[in-house]
């Protein structure tokens, strides 16, 4: 337990301090008040969530990184010893999330002593560790017992990297948090948002963010291409620029009821190994006039 006075960085003493400490442990949203932050309702809900899988599909400058850093800080302080990993496409982005976490810890006057600290990792006296990871699949393997895995700018993280980090949660039963703006109808972030199982999903557009002025948002709408504005501010998964066919057209053409032209056992790679995945059967898509194209 970590006794603090509400709204201050000073240690709390006596029965009141213990009561406050217990309250923050049970309600993570109170931690924001203690570090001097006024959260939106959706941020408070995200902080309180104990779902194993959480996706934040949020506008730019909506506060998703702030609430994610608080989730990580609460995990490290109140669920020790916890291993918290911060992952992003670039190490610099992971470090920015790490900096927000350290700012929150400093606002509390470091209630738990820091044993070791660097630009990429921190170890607390309670046994918790917070580490930044680079966005390279080949260099992040080997972690186990992960309590919380946060993937920032998740829509820009490669599928290979995402597939490499998920097994870190297999034994520990740890939580995973994905946060991002959209980046087209592609990749694991889009798939998890649209059809992934077991996810709590939170969507926050710029219009729902009280810190973004309405007149400024309207100027952005006029200045940016609609595709960019919708993606960055309205959380819309648009078609990718380099796609020949739209995602909807591709999905319309896929028909699981059509038998494949050949069985999986007939697919032989040059090295002689066989493929165990049956090809998708595709039927022509109908046009609006009833013909085929």
Secondary structure elements and their pairing?
Layout: H1 14-26, H2 29-34, H3 41-48, E1 53-58, H4 64-78, E2 83-87, H5 91-107, E3 114-117, E4 121-124, E5 129-133, E6 146-152, H6 159-165, E7 175-180, H7 187-195, E8 200-204, H8 214-223, H9 226-233, H10 247-253
Parallel strand pairs: 1-7, 1-8, 2-5, 2-6, 6-7
Antiparallel strand pairs: 3-4, 4-5
Helix pairs in contact: 3-4, 4-5
Structural features:
293 residues; 14% strand; Rossmann fold; disordered N terminus; 10 helices
Give the averaged pLDDT, no decimals. Answer: 85
| CATH topology-level fold name of the largest domain | Rossmann fold
Quick one: biggest sheet? Answer: 8 strands, mixed
Straight-line distance between termini: 66 Å
Count every helix, treating DSSP H or I runs of 4 or more residues as helices: 10
Beta-strand segment tally: 8
* Sheet with the most strands: spatial strand order: 3-4-5-2-6-7-1-8
Principal-axis shape: globular
Work out the helicity level. Answer: 25-40%
Please trace the helix and strand order, writing H or E for each element. HHHEHEHEEEEHEHEHHH
Rg of Cα set: 23 Å
Q: What structural category arises from helix and sheet content?
A: alpha/beta
CATH class of the largest domain: Alpha Beta
Show unreliable segments: 3-11, 264-270, 272-293
Corresponding CATH architecture of the largest domain: 3-Layer(aba) Sandwich
CATH superfamily name of the largest domain? P-loop containing nucleotide triphosphate hydrolases
**How much β-strand is present in the residues?**
5-15%
Give the number of domains.
2
